[in-house]
Amino acid sequence: MRKYWARLGFAGVMLTLVVPSMVAQQSPAKPSARDEMLPGPGSAWSLAAVGDAIITRRIAPLETDADPRFKRMADVLRAADAAFLNLEISLFRLSEFQGWPEVENGGNWELGPPEAATDLKTMGFDLFNRANNHTTDYGVEGMRMTNVLLDEVGIVHSGSGMTLGQASRPGYLDTAKGRIALIGLATTFTPMSRAGEARDDVKGRPGLNALRINRKYEVDEATRASLAKFARAVGVNVPEDANAPFRLFGNVIEPGPSARVIETLNKRDEERILREIRNAAVLADYVIVNSHSHEPGNDSVVPPSWLPDFVKKCLDAGASTYIVHGPHQLRGIEIYKGKPIFYSLGNFVFQNETIDPMPADHYELFDLPPTALAADLYDARFKGGASGFPSSPVWYESVVAVPTFKGREVTEIRLYPIDLGQKSPRSQRGTPRIADDATGRKIIERVAKLSAATGVTIRYENGIGVWKAAGPSTMP
Hints:
Blueprint: E1 3-10, E2 13-20, H1 21-24, H2 33-37, E3 44-54, H3 68-79, E4 82-87, E5 90-91, E6 111-112, H4 115-123, E7 127-129, H5 139-153, E8 156-158, E9 160-161, H6 164-168, E10 171-175, E11 178-186, E12 207-208, E13 213-219, H7 221-233, E14 246-248, E15 251-255, E16 260-265, H8 267-283, E17 286-292, H9 306-316, E18 321-325, E19 333-336, E20 339-342, E21 347-350, H10 360-365, H11 374-382, E22 397-406, E23 409-419, E24 433-434, H12 437-451, E25 459-461, E26 464-468
Parallel strand pairs: 3-4, 3-21, 4-7, 5-6, 7-8, 11-17, 13-15, 17-18, 18-20
Antiparallel strand pairs: 1-2, 3-22, 9-12, 10-11, 13-16, 14-15, 19-20, 22-23, 23-24, 23-26, 25-26
Protein backbone atom coordinates (compact mmCIF):
# COMPACT_ATOMS: atom_id res chain seq x y z
CA MET A 1 0.00 0.00 0.00
CA ARG A 2 1.26 3.48 -0.96
CA LYS A 3 2.08 5.60 2.11
CA TYR A 4 2.60 9.33 2.77
CA TRP A 5 5.22 10.17 5.36
CA ALA A 6 5.40 13.25 7.55
CA ARG A 7 8.08 13.87 10.13
CA LEU A 8 7.60 16.09 13.13
CA GLY A 9 10.52 17.07 15.34
CA PHE A 10 9.72 17.89 18.97
CA ALA A 11 12.10 18.05 21.95
CA GLY A 12 14.66 15.96 20.10
CA VAL A 13 12.13 13.17 19.37
CA MET A 14 11.33 12.18 15.79
CA LEU A 15 7.78 10.94 15.21
CA THR A 16 6.76 9.16 12.03
CA LEU A 17 3.13 9.32 10.90
CA VAL A 18 1.75 6.73 8.49
CA VAL A 19 -1.26 7.89 6.47
CA PRO A 20 -3.11 5.45 4.21
CA SER A 21 -3.28 6.59 0.59
CA MET A 22 -7.07 6.17 0.53
CA VAL A 23 -7.30 8.97 3.09
CA ALA A 24 -4.87 11.21 1.22
CA GLN A 25 -6.88 10.82 -1.98
CA GLN A 26 -10.12 12.09 -0.50
CA SER A 27 -11.46 15.33 -1.93
CA PRO A 28 -10.21 18.34 0.03
CA ALA A 29 -12.73 20.07 2.22
CA LYS A 30 -14.35 23.20 0.85
CA PRO A 31 -12.52 26.35 1.90
CA SER A 32 -14.02 28.01 4.92
CA ALA A 33 -14.93 31.69 5.09
CA ARG A 34 -11.68 32.16 6.98
CA ASP A 35 -9.70 30.52 4.15
CA GLU A 36 -11.24 32.95 1.66
CA MET A 37 -9.90 35.83 3.71
CA LEU A 38 -6.33 34.52 3.60
CA PRO A 39 -3.82 35.60 0.94
CA GLY A 40 -3.62 33.43 -2.14
CA PRO A 41 -5.26 32.46 -5.42
CA GLY A 42 -8.64 31.68 -3.83
CA SER A 43 -9.03 34.91 -1.88
CA ALA A 44 -11.91 37.32 -2.26
CA TRP A 45 -10.42 40.71 -3.12
CA SER A 46 -11.45 44.03 -4.63
CA LEU A 47 -9.84 46.61 -6.88
CA ALA A 48 -10.79 50.27 -7.25
CA ALA A 49 -9.88 51.38 -10.78
CA VAL A 50 -10.08 54.78 -12.44
CA GLY A 51 -8.82 56.35 -15.65
CA ASP A 52 -6.51 59.31 -16.29
CA ALA A 53 -5.13 61.58 -13.58
CA ILE A 54 -3.91 64.96 -14.81
CA ILE A 55 -3.45 66.57 -11.42
CA THR A 56 -2.07 70.09 -11.07
CA ARG A 57 -3.63 71.17 -7.77
CA ARG A 58 -3.80 69.80 -4.22
CA ILE A 59 -6.84 67.60 -3.58
CA ALA A 60 -6.25 65.87 -0.24
CA PRO A 61 -7.31 69.01 1.75
CA LEU A 62 -10.78 68.68 0.17
CA GLU A 63 -11.62 65.63 2.28
CA THR A 64 -13.60 67.33 5.01
CA ASP A 65 -17.15 67.20 6.34
CA ALA A 66 -17.76 70.34 4.27
CA ASP A 67 -17.19 68.34 1.07
CA PRO A 68 -19.13 65.09 1.68
CA ARG A 69 -19.23 63.98 -1.98
CA PHE A 70 -15.43 64.07 -2.20
CA LYS A 71 -15.15 62.26 1.11
CA ARG A 72 -17.57 59.53 -0.05
CA MET A 73 -15.44 58.97 -3.15
CA ALA A 74 -12.24 58.70 -1.08
CA ASP A 75 -13.97 56.21 1.22
CA VAL A 76 -14.78 54.02 -1.81
CA LEU A 77 -11.16 54.06 -2.92
CA ARG A 78 -9.73 53.20 0.49
CA ALA A 79 -12.25 50.42 1.08
CA ALA A 80 -10.80 48.38 -1.80
CA ASP A 81 -7.83 46.05 -1.31
CA ALA A 82 -5.91 47.97 -4.01
CA ALA A 83 -6.54 51.09 -6.08
CA PHE A 84 -5.22 51.89 -9.57
CA LEU A 85 -4.93 54.92 -11.87
CA ASN A 86 -3.04 56.18 -14.91
CA LEU A 87 -0.71 59.04 -13.96
CA GLU A 88 -0.72 61.11 -17.14
CA ILE A 89 1.54 63.87 -15.91
CA SER A 90 5.06 64.48 -14.62
CA LEU A 91 5.38 65.51 -10.98
CA PHE A 92 8.33 67.68 -9.93
CA ARG A 93 9.31 71.31 -9.34
CA LEU A 94 10.80 73.17 -12.28
CA SER A 95 13.22 74.85 -9.85
CA GLU A 96 14.73 71.40 -9.16
CA PHE A 97 14.63 70.17 -12.76
CA GLN A 98 17.87 69.91 -14.71
CA GLY A 99 16.31 69.05 -18.07
CA TRP A 100 13.99 70.81 -20.50
CA PRO A 101 10.62 70.33 -22.22
CA GLU A 102 10.97 68.17 -25.31
CA VAL A 103 9.90 69.13 -28.83
CA GLU A 104 7.72 66.03 -28.97
CA ASN A 105 4.84 65.99 -26.51
CA GLY A 106 1.52 64.29 -25.99
CA GLY A 107 -0.56 67.32 -27.01
CA ASN A 108 0.84 69.70 -24.41
CA TRP A 109 3.45 69.57 -21.66
CA GLU A 110 1.81 68.23 -18.52
CA LEU A 111 3.44 69.03 -15.19
CA GLY A 112 2.10 69.02 -11.65
CA PRO A 113 3.38 69.48 -8.08
CA PRO A 114 5.17 66.59 -6.34
CA GLU A 115 2.71 66.85 -3.43
CA ALA A 116 0.08 65.40 -5.78
CA ALA A 117 1.66 61.97 -5.40
CA THR A 118 1.14 62.10 -1.64
CA ASP A 119 -2.42 63.35 -2.09
CA LEU A 120 -3.28 60.43 -4.37
CA LYS A 121 -1.70 57.96 -1.97
CA THR A 122 -3.66 59.49 0.92
CA MET A 123 -6.84 58.89 -1.07
CA GLY A 124 -5.95 55.19 -1.28
CA PHE A 125 -4.12 54.77 -4.59
CA ASP A 126 -1.16 52.41 -4.57
CA LEU A 127 -0.83 51.27 -8.24
CA PHE A 128 0.08 53.72 -11.05
CA ASN A 129 0.55 53.23 -14.78
CA ARG A 130 3.36 55.37 -16.19
CA ALA A 131 3.16 54.50 -19.90
CA ASN A 132 1.24 57.12 -21.87
CA ASN A 133 1.65 59.85 -24.47
CA HIS A 134 2.84 62.32 -21.80
CA THR A 135 5.54 60.12 -20.21
CA THR A 136 8.39 62.13 -21.74
CA ASP A 137 6.88 65.61 -22.14
CA TYR A 138 9.89 66.71 -20.07
CA GLY A 139 12.22 64.13 -21.49
CA VAL A 140 13.84 61.16 -19.84
CA GLU A 141 14.86 63.31 -16.86
CA GLY A 142 11.25 64.30 -16.19
CA MET A 143 10.21 60.64 -16.41
CA ARG A 144 13.01 59.60 -14.09
CA MET A 145 12.30 62.29 -11.48
CA THR A 146 8.63 61.35 -11.38
CA ASN A 147 9.44 57.65 -10.98
CA VAL A 148 11.91 58.40 -8.18
CA LEU A 149 9.23 60.45 -6.42
CA LEU A 150 6.75 57.57 -6.63
CA ASP A 151 9.37 55.19 -5.24
CA GLU A 152 10.05 57.53 -2.33
CA VAL A 153 6.35 57.91 -1.56
CA GLY A 154 5.86 54.14 -1.74
CA ILE A 155 3.61 53.88 -4.79
CA VAL A 156 3.98 50.82 -7.04
CA HIS A 157 4.25 51.81 -10.70
CA SER A 158 5.03 50.20 -14.03
CA GLY A 159 5.22 51.00 -17.73
CA SER A 160 8.42 53.07 -17.87
CA GLY A 161 12.07 52.58 -17.03
CA MET A 162 15.67 53.15 -18.00
CA THR A 163 15.63 50.26 -20.52
CA LEU A 164 12.93 48.36 -22.34
CA GLY A 165 13.45 45.47 -19.93
CA GLN A 166 12.72 47.71 -16.95
CA ALA A 167 9.76 49.39 -18.65
CA SER A 168 8.23 46.00 -19.51
CA ARG A 169 8.47 44.51 -16.02
CA PRO A 170 5.54 44.46 -13.61
CA GLY A 171 5.31 46.40 -10.40
CA TYR A 172 4.33 44.21 -7.43
CA LEU A 173 2.06 45.16 -4.55
CA ASP A 174 1.77 42.85 -1.53
CA THR A 175 -1.62 43.07 0.15
CA ALA A 176 -3.48 41.19 2.87
CA LYS A 177 -5.38 39.38 0.10
CA GLY A 178 -2.39 38.36 -2.00
CA ARG A 179 0.31 39.66 -4.31
CA ILE A 180 -0.83 41.87 -7.20
CA ALA A 181 1.26 42.48 -10.33
CA LEU A 182 0.68 45.58 -12.48
CA ILE A 183 1.85 45.67 -16.11
CA GLY A 184 1.55 49.04 -17.84
CA LEU A 185 1.92 49.71 -21.57
CA ALA A 186 0.93 52.23 -24.20
CA THR A 187 -0.27 52.00 -27.77
CA THR A 188 -0.52 55.80 -27.98
CA PHE A 189 2.86 57.47 -27.46
CA THR A 190 5.34 59.89 -28.96
CA PRO A 191 8.07 58.19 -31.05
CA MET A 192 10.89 59.41 -28.80
CA SER A 193 9.28 57.94 -25.68
CA ARG A 194 9.58 54.27 -26.70
CA ALA A 195 12.12 52.40 -24.56
CA GLY A 196 14.82 50.35 -26.31
CA GLU A 197 16.50 47.05 -25.53
CA ALA A 198 20.05 46.87 -24.21
CA ARG A 199 22.79 44.99 -26.04
CA ASP A 200 26.26 43.96 -24.96
CA ASP A 201 27.69 46.78 -27.07
CA VAL A 202 24.95 49.48 -26.83
CA LYS A 203 23.02 50.85 -23.86
CA GLY A 204 19.29 50.39 -23.62
CA ARG A 205 17.12 53.46 -24.22
CA PRO A 206 14.97 54.88 -21.40
CA GLY A 207 11.27 55.27 -22.07
CA LEU A 208 7.95 53.48 -21.93
CA ASN A 209 6.65 49.99 -22.60
CA ALA A 210 5.27 50.36 -26.13
CA LEU A 211 2.96 48.18 -28.15
CA ARG A 212 3.50 49.43 -31.69
CA ILE A 213 0.66 49.39 -34.22
CA ASN A 214 1.55 48.72 -37.86
CA ARG A 215 -0.68 50.72 -40.21
CA LYS A 216 -1.18 49.88 -43.86
CA TYR A 217 -3.12 52.34 -46.03
CA GLU A 218 -5.06 50.94 -48.97
CA VAL A 219 -7.02 52.96 -51.54
CA ASP A 220 -9.29 52.10 -54.42
CA GLU A 221 -8.38 53.05 -57.99
CA ALA A 222 -10.21 56.39 -58.03
CA THR A 223 -8.83 57.47 -54.64
CA ARG A 224 -5.30 56.48 -55.68
CA ALA A 225 -5.59 58.58 -58.83
CA SER A 226 -6.67 61.62 -56.80
CA LEU A 227 -3.92 61.18 -54.24
CA ALA A 228 -1.33 60.57 -56.94
CA LYS A 229 -2.37 63.77 -58.71
CA PHE A 230 -2.04 65.74 -55.50
CA ALA A 231 1.29 64.12 -54.63
CA ARG A 232 2.80 64.95 -58.03
CA ALA A 233 1.55 68.54 -57.68
CA VAL A 234 3.54 68.97 -54.47
CA GLY A 235 6.68 67.34 -55.87
CA VAL A 236 6.30 63.72 -54.76
CA ASN A 237 7.63 61.13 -57.21
CA VAL A 238 4.71 58.75 -57.91
CA PRO A 239 5.14 55.71 -60.18
CA GLU A 240 3.01 55.71 -63.31
CA ASP A 241 2.04 52.10 -62.67
CA ALA A 242 -1.40 52.26 -61.02
CA ASN A 243 -0.61 49.10 -59.03
CA ALA A 244 2.61 50.45 -57.54
CA PRO A 245 2.66 51.81 -53.95
CA PHE A 246 3.97 55.31 -53.17
CA ARG A 247 4.74 57.37 -50.09
CA LEU A 248 2.70 60.39 -49.02
CA PHE A 249 2.91 62.28 -45.71
CA GLY A 250 5.26 59.60 -44.39
CA ASN A 251 2.83 56.75 -45.13
CA VAL A 252 2.89 54.07 -47.81
CA ILE A 253 -0.22 54.12 -50.02
CA GLU A 254 -1.04 50.78 -51.62
CA PRO A 255 -3.77 49.78 -54.11
CA GLY A 256 -6.69 47.83 -52.65
CA PRO A 257 -10.39 47.10 -53.03
CA SER A 258 -11.44 50.12 -50.96
CA ALA A 259 -10.09 53.06 -48.97
CA ARG A 260 -9.18 51.67 -45.56
CA VAL A 261 -6.52 51.46 -42.89
CA ILE A 262 -5.36 47.97 -41.89
CA GLU A 263 -3.85 47.87 -38.40
CA THR A 264 -1.84 44.98 -36.98
CA LEU A 265 0.22 44.60 -33.82
CA ASN A 266 3.99 44.54 -33.78
CA LYS A 267 4.73 40.86 -33.12
CA ARG A 268 7.90 41.46 -31.09
CA ASP A 269 6.11 43.89 -28.79
CA GLU A 270 3.09 41.62 -28.44
CA GLU A 271 5.13 38.56 -27.54
CA ARG A 272 7.27 40.51 -25.06
CA ILE A 273 4.16 41.76 -23.24
CA LEU A 274 2.50 38.32 -23.19
CA ARG A 275 5.73 36.78 -21.88
CA GLU A 276 5.78 39.28 -19.00
CA ILE A 277 2.14 38.48 -18.18
CA ARG A 278 2.86 34.74 -18.07
CA ASN A 279 5.81 35.38 -15.77
CA ALA A 280 3.80 37.69 -13.50
CA ALA A 281 0.98 35.14 -13.28
CA VAL A 282 3.47 32.74 -11.69
CA LEU A 283 5.13 35.25 -9.37
CA ALA A 284 1.90 36.94 -8.21
CA ASP A 285 -1.59 35.85 -7.26
CA TYR A 286 -3.35 38.36 -9.53
CA VAL A 287 -2.22 40.32 -12.59
CA ILE A 288 -3.63 43.66 -13.74
CA VAL A 289 -2.76 44.74 -17.30
CA ASN A 290 -3.51 48.23 -18.50
CA SER A 291 -2.84 50.21 -21.63
CA HIS A 292 -2.98 53.85 -22.63
CA SER A 293 -4.88 53.58 -25.92
CA HIS A 294 -6.52 56.61 -27.54
CA GLU A 295 -7.19 54.64 -30.71
CA PRO A 296 -9.16 55.10 -32.93
CA GLY A 297 -9.61 58.55 -31.39
CA ASN A 298 -10.96 60.34 -28.35
CA ASP A 299 -14.34 60.91 -30.00
CA SER A 300 -14.94 57.18 -30.52
CA VAL A 301 -16.79 55.15 -27.89
CA VAL A 302 -15.89 51.92 -29.73
CA PRO A 303 -12.38 50.44 -29.33
CA PRO A 304 -10.32 49.68 -32.45
CA SER A 305 -10.80 46.23 -33.97
CA TRP A 306 -7.38 44.91 -32.89
CA LEU A 307 -7.75 45.84 -29.21
CA PRO A 308 -10.33 43.25 -28.01
CA ASP A 309 -8.30 40.44 -29.61
CA PHE A 310 -5.10 41.57 -27.91
CA VAL A 311 -6.85 42.07 -24.57
CA LYS A 312 -8.18 38.51 -24.64
CA LYS A 313 -4.70 37.15 -25.38
CA CYS A 314 -3.52 38.96 -22.24
CA LEU A 315 -6.32 37.45 -20.16
CA ASP A 316 -5.61 34.00 -21.56
CA ALA A 317 -1.94 34.49 -20.63
CA GLY A 318 -2.87 34.93 -16.97
CA ALA A 319 -4.17 38.47 -16.41
CA SER A 320 -7.11 38.89 -14.04
CA THR A 321 -8.39 42.07 -15.67
CA TYR A 322 -7.49 44.53 -18.45
CA ILE A 323 -8.06 48.26 -18.02
CA VAL A 324 -7.87 50.85 -20.81
CA HIS A 325 -7.38 54.56 -20.29
CA GLY A 326 -6.63 57.36 -22.72
CA PRO A 327 -9.80 58.29 -24.68
CA HIS A 328 -10.83 60.70 -21.88
CA GLN A 329 -14.39 59.41 -21.96
CA LEU A 330 -16.17 56.24 -20.92
CA ARG A 331 -16.42 53.15 -23.09
CA GLY A 332 -18.12 49.83 -22.41
CA ILE A 333 -17.27 46.82 -20.24
CA GLU A 334 -16.92 43.21 -21.36
CA ILE A 335 -16.66 39.98 -19.34
CA TYR A 336 -14.37 37.37 -20.92
CA LYS A 337 -14.07 33.94 -19.29
CA GLY A 338 -15.00 35.44 -15.95
CA LYS A 339 -12.55 38.33 -16.26
CA PRO A 340 -13.55 42.00 -16.67
CA ILE A 341 -12.38 44.27 -19.48
CA PHE A 342 -12.80 48.03 -19.05
CA TYR A 343 -12.40 49.58 -22.50
CA SER A 344 -12.04 53.07 -21.04
CA LEU A 345 -12.57 54.52 -17.58
CA GLY A 346 -12.39 58.10 -18.84
CA ASN A 347 -10.91 60.74 -16.57
CA PHE A 348 -10.44 60.73 -12.83
CA VAL A 349 -8.64 64.04 -12.25
CA PHE A 350 -8.72 66.33 -15.29
CA GLN A 351 -7.08 69.58 -14.18
CA ASN A 352 -5.54 70.34 -17.56
CA GLU A 353 -6.38 74.05 -17.55
CA THR A 354 -4.19 75.00 -14.59
CA ILE A 355 -0.83 73.76 -15.87
CA ASP A 356 1.41 76.78 -15.38
CA PRO A 357 3.92 77.61 -16.75
CA MET A 358 3.95 76.16 -20.27
CA PRO A 359 6.84 76.10 -22.76
CA ALA A 360 7.11 78.82 -25.40
CA ASP A 361 6.23 76.30 -28.14
CA HIS A 362 2.67 76.03 -26.88
CA TYR A 363 2.15 79.79 -26.99
CA GLU A 364 3.56 79.89 -30.52
CA LEU A 365 1.08 77.20 -31.58
CA PHE A 366 -1.76 79.64 -30.89
CA ASP A 367 0.13 82.67 -32.25
CA LEU A 368 0.26 84.34 -28.86
CA PRO A 369 2.80 87.08 -28.06
CA PRO A 370 5.73 86.60 -25.66
CA THR A 371 3.82 88.55 -23.01
CA ALA A 372 0.93 86.04 -22.98
CA LEU A 373 0.40 83.94 -19.84
CA ALA A 374 -1.32 80.63 -19.06
CA ALA A 375 -4.82 82.11 -18.82
CA ASP A 376 -4.42 83.57 -22.32
CA LEU A 377 -3.19 80.21 -23.59
CA TYR A 378 -6.21 78.27 -22.34
CA ASP A 379 -8.62 80.96 -23.55
CA ALA A 380 -7.10 80.60 -27.03
CA ARG A 381 -6.96 76.81 -26.98
CA PHE A 382 -10.52 76.27 -25.76
CA LYS A 383 -12.04 79.50 -27.10
CA GLY A 384 -13.12 80.58 -23.66
CA GLY A 385 -14.71 77.18 -22.96
CA ALA A 386 -16.75 77.08 -26.18
CA SER A 387 -14.71 74.28 -27.77
CA GLY A 388 -12.54 71.35 -26.81
CA PHE A 389 -12.74 69.55 -23.47
CA PRO A 390 -14.48 72.28 -21.38
CA SER A 391 -17.36 72.47 -23.88
CA SER A 392 -18.89 69.06 -23.10
CA PRO A 393 -19.71 67.16 -19.89
CA VAL A 394 -18.74 63.84 -21.50
CA TRP A 395 -15.09 64.49 -20.59
CA TYR A 396 -15.97 65.29 -16.98
CA GLU A 397 -18.31 62.42 -16.13
CA SER A 398 -16.84 59.03 -15.25
CA VAL A 399 -16.85 56.21 -12.73
CA VAL A 400 -14.79 54.58 -10.03
CA ALA A 401 -15.01 50.91 -11.02
CA VAL A 402 -14.79 48.41 -8.15
CA PRO A 403 -14.66 44.81 -9.38
CA THR A 404 -14.72 42.13 -6.68
CA PHE A 405 -12.95 38.86 -7.46
CA LYS A 406 -12.89 35.37 -6.10
CA GLY A 407 -9.35 34.49 -7.05
CA ARG A 408 -8.96 35.50 -10.69
CA GLU A 409 -12.65 35.50 -11.54
CA VAL A 410 -14.89 38.51 -11.11
CA THR A 411 -18.07 38.06 -9.09
CA GLU A 412 -19.39 41.62 -9.01
CA ILE A 413 -18.65 45.08 -10.40
CA ARG A 414 -19.80 48.27 -8.75
CA LEU A 415 -19.60 51.53 -10.67
CA TYR A 416 -19.60 54.69 -8.57
CA PRO A 417 -20.43 57.67 -10.81
CA ILE A 418 -18.17 60.69 -10.42
CA ASP A 419 -18.59 64.28 -11.62
CA LEU A 420 -15.49 66.36 -12.36
CA GLY A 421 -17.39 69.67 -12.50
CA GLN A 422 -17.53 70.70 -16.15
CA LYS A 423 -19.53 73.81 -15.23
CA SER A 424 -17.15 74.82 -12.44
CA PRO A 425 -14.71 77.72 -12.88
CA ARG A 426 -11.31 76.86 -14.31
CA SER A 427 -9.75 76.96 -10.84
CA GLN A 428 -12.01 74.09 -9.73
CA ARG A 429 -12.86 72.20 -12.91
CA GLY A 430 -11.49 68.67 -13.20
CA THR A 431 -11.69 67.61 -9.53
CA PRO A 432 -13.73 64.43 -8.95
CA ARG A 433 -16.60 63.88 -6.53
CA ILE A 434 -19.43 61.36 -6.27
CA ALA A 435 -22.06 62.59 -8.72
CA ASP A 436 -25.49 63.82 -7.64
CA ASP A 437 -28.43 61.49 -8.27
CA ALA A 438 -29.49 62.88 -11.65
CA THR A 439 -25.96 63.06 -13.05
CA GLY A 440 -25.07 59.68 -11.58
CA ARG A 441 -28.03 57.97 -13.21
CA LYS A 442 -27.12 59.51 -16.57
CA ILE A 443 -23.52 58.29 -16.26
CA ILE A 444 -24.53 54.72 -15.36
CA GLU A 445 -27.09 54.59 -18.14
CA ARG A 446 -24.38 55.63 -20.58
CA VAL A 447 -22.02 52.87 -19.42
CA ALA A 448 -24.88 50.35 -19.48
CA LYS A 449 -25.75 51.24 -23.07
CA LEU A 450 -22.11 50.96 -24.17
CA SER A 451 -21.70 47.63 -22.37
CA ALA A 452 -24.86 46.04 -23.71
CA ALA A 453 -23.13 45.40 -27.05
CA THR A 454 -20.93 42.77 -25.35
CA GLY A 455 -23.79 41.20 -23.42
CA VAL A 456 -23.00 42.90 -20.10
CA THR A 457 -26.07 44.05 -18.17
CA ILE A 458 -25.51 46.90 -15.74
CA ARG A 459 -28.33 48.03 -13.44
CA TYR A 460 -28.69 51.30 -11.60
CA GLU A 461 -29.20 50.49 -7.92
CA ASN A 462 -29.07 52.88 -4.96
CA GLY A 463 -27.03 55.47 -6.83
CA ILE A 464 -24.46 53.13 -8.42
CA GLY A 465 -24.16 50.77 -11.36
CA VAL A 466 -24.06 47.06 -10.53
CA TRP A 467 -23.15 43.96 -12.50
CA LYS A 468 -23.22 40.52 -10.88
CA ALA A 469 -22.09 37.15 -12.13
CA ALA A 470 -25.07 35.08 -13.29
CA GLY A 471 -24.38 32.03 -11.12
CA PRO A 472 -21.77 29.61 -9.85
CA SER A 473 -18.46 29.66 -11.71
CA THR A 474 -17.86 27.31 -14.60
CA MET A 475 -14.19 28.10 -14.56
CA PRO A 476 -11.80 25.16 -13.98
